[in-house]
Design brief:
27% strand, alpha+beta, single chain, four-stranded antiparallel β-sheet, 3 helices
Length: 111
Amino acid sequence: MQNEIYRDFYEKALIPAGSSDSKAFMDIQPDLLHTHLLIGLQGHQEHGKEYYHWNVTIYKSDSVGSYDACKPIYASSLYDKFDDAVEAARNIEKEIRNDQLHTVRQQEKIS
């Protein structure tokens, strides 16, 4: 398990980063190792509660899915329902495939 920060982490999609998204999210200098964006769903359990909140996270990744779990480039707000987080991940996947993540999510970027 590469992401030991969260008990529940589900990789949803590994997508090659488009040129515009690469410029916006892969730092100023191109990183030859990080050519893809990995979308994941992370579960957050409140202390003493049985249920989870979920958020969508995006990590810089290489072509085989290796990423730094401590440094997401994007993290959504929390969703109460897993299905809502899955739907948000699908929408973000479409943005990445269209090389439009940078235009939609730039203000939410994590550095």
